[in-house]
Every structure is written in structure tokens, then in C-alpha cells.
Amino acid sequence: MIDWEVAVNTGVRWARPGPQISLGEARRTVAELRELAREVAEPVQEVTGMVSAEEVGRVAVVDRPGWIRANVDGFRVVLEPLVEQLRNRQPGENSGGSMLSGVGSRMTGIQAGLILAYLSGRVLGQYELFLPPDDEGNGSLGRLTLVAPNIVMIERELGVDPHDFRRWVCLHEETHRLQFTAVSWLREYVQGQMTEFLLASELDPGAILGRLRAAADAMAGAVRGGDGGSLIEAVVSPGQREIMDRLTAVMTLVEGHGDYVMDAVGPQVVPSVEQIRERFSARRGSPGRIEQTLRRLLGIDLKMKQYAEGSAFVKTVVETAGMAEFNKVWTSPGTLPTREELAQPSEWLDRVAGVVQ
Questions:
Q1: What is the dihedral of CA 291, 296, 300, 302, to 10 degrees?
Q2: Which one of 39, 238, 242, 257 is least enclosed by Cβ atoms within 10 Å?
Q3: pTM of the full predicted structure?
Q4: Which residues of 325-340 are buried (b: 16+ CB within 10 A; e: fewer)?
Q5: What pLDDT is attached to residue 89?
Q6: Shortest CA distance to 330 belongs to which of 309, 307, 350, 353?
Q7: Sheet of strand 59-62: strand arrangement
Q8: What is the overall mean pLDDT for the chain?
């Protein structure tokens, strides 16, 4: 389906260089980020009331090419069920697979690489859920990854205290690590939903053609500056929409929870947190025209909405019922908020926490 080597080579070739920084400063930055990622674990656990299954989580500090390579490894893990499905198709049933092959794995590799090159200059950090097995075939709980040149670039653009900004970023990513290591079923649930989403793909030529037309409409709408959806929303099949709603809901929760904790812990350990949040939010909300188009196409605007909606949900529930009642959200997949409940926290409180407003 995708030539991953081409994707990596394309991404690395087209990734923009990071900010100018001396070798000594680069080494100090990497060391500080590693240390801060460990330091914030305790205050995050204290605020959330959650306990990680890992005593010391894995931390990787990478440059932009390193982030691209890591994400390609993750994509390969996520897409393996769909690739296996295509392999197992009988020759007479493989019309959809033949059409995909006709497009060319190298071309899709180039497209994936260009998207990764764009994103590699914007991601500050992430918790990598999907990692390939190690040399002994063992899986991994995941890894907290920080993109050092992007963190340095943004702290310079914002004119904020570098130490405070780096700690602030680590708070958000450490919250994600805690979510997926303290809640035993969460990683498996997300992976299962993603696998189900991929296997629900319509691979016959007629369906693919319809999805491609929808993608073209989405691209045209984004270029015109309209309110159309992302490419992902445009190409999903009817059977995938319900799964996508569940995935969107859980990712809105975890992103919003990360944002809430970042600001809740911030005043304790980040003296200039209010200045950082104000300037960072202003930067998020003022992209140029080309940037707006790309953000809309790639679903980045949706992610920004997830931060805001998810954070508002967590804040409302915690202020109404307390953190212990909010943490009932992690009991099972059945206690996760639906997309409707994220917009109306009182409905979740009534259903799960037993609090009637």
C-alpha cells in the first residue's frame, strides 16, 4: 500500500530545518527536556489522582527527521491489520487492492512523506502508543517523545521563559503517558477502534472512486476557505462514521484532559504559566491563509477544537463533582463520554457520576 522507505526519505528531504542552535546548547536542551519529563510525573499524578503502571516512563528527545521515522514505525503497526486483510484476499476478490496497487505504493509513500514533513515542524511532543516490537518480539507500553527543535522554535517565537515553556509542554505529554499507563484498558481500546476503523474500509473500485470525489470536494472547500471537513472525514465510508465518532470522543477526552492538567498543575511548577498560555493560544488562533488550508485538510483544526471542547468538559465535571467523580470516566469504555456528552457534561454527570444539575 505504501512504500515506507520512500515516505521516510521524502519526509526527511522536505522537512524544514530547525532553528539555529549550537551543539552545546542542543545537548543542554535535550538533557533538560529528559529531566523535566521525569520531574513533572509526580505533580501530574497528584492533581489527577491517577497512578502509572510504570515507575519511570520511556522518554525520547528527537529532531524532525527522528520524529518522522518514529511516526512511520507507528503507522506500520497501525496499518498492519488492513495490509494483512489485503494479503489474504483471493485473486478474484482483489479488485480494490489492484486499484490501490495501480496508484502506486511509491506515490502514496511520497504523499505520506510530504504530510509528515509538514507536521514535523509543528508537533511539540506526543505519547507514542504504537511502537514496533523490540528485537525479542516484545511489545511496548509506549514512549513519551519530545521534538526539541520545535520546542526551541516556539519558545523563541513567543518570547517566553524557555525553562518554564519546556516544563509546560512536558506536563501535557506526561498526562498522556499517565492516561495510557494508569488505565489498563485504554491503549487496547484505542487500538481496537483503529483496527475496526481500518477493516471497515470499502475497497471496491466504485466506493474508492466516490471517496476520492469527496476528497476532491474537501480540498476545493479548504482552498476556498469554507467550513468543509478534513480529508479523513471526506473519505470515510458509512460504516466507519460510527467508529470515527467513538475515536473522536476518546481523543477529545484525552487531549482535553491533557490541556486541563497542564494548566491545573502549571501554577505550582511553571511561574509564567499564564503568560505562556495567553501567547500560545494567540499563536494557535492566527494562522496564515495557506496554513489555514493545510490545517483544515489535515484535520488540525479538528484537533484544536478537541483541545478546547475536551478541556471544557473536564473543567466542568471537576468543578461540579470533583476529580474523584471525574475519574469514573476511566472505569471502562462504557463510562467514556459520547460526542454529545462532551458538549453537554451534565448528561455525562447524570449517566455516570450520578450527579444531577
A1: 150
A2: 238
A3: 0.82
A4: bbbbbbeeeeebbeee
A5: 63
A6: 353
A7: 59-62, 143-147, 125-128
A8: 81
Are 291 and 223 spatial neighbours (Cβ–Cβ below 8 Å)?
no
Q: Which three cell numbers stand for residue 98?
A: 489492484
Tell me if 237 sits within 8 A of 207, measured CB to CB: yes
Listed as ranges, residues in the chain with pLDDT below 50 are 94-95, 102, 204-226, 228-231
Q: Which of 256, 258, 250, 263 is nearest to 311 (CA)?
A: 256
Count of positions (residues) in the chain: 357
Helix ranges (H only) for the chain are 4-14, 23-39, 41-48, 64-87, 95-103, 105-120, 148-158, 162-182, 186-199, 205-224, 231-235, 238-269, 273-284, 289-298, 300-321, 323-326, 339-343, 345-348
Give, for 127, the enclosing helix (H) or strand (E).
Answer: strand 125-128
Element (H, E) at 128: strand 125-128
The answer to whether the beta carbons of residues 323 and 314 sit under 8 Å apart is: no
Inter-residue contact 49 to 328 (CB < 8 Å):
no
Distance CA 211, CA 234 (A): 7
CB-CB contact of 7 with 144 (8 Å): no
DSSP 40: T
The pLDDT tens digits for 314-337 are: 999 999 999 999 999 999 999 999
DSSP reduced 3-state for 245: helix
**Three-state DSSP state, 344:** coil
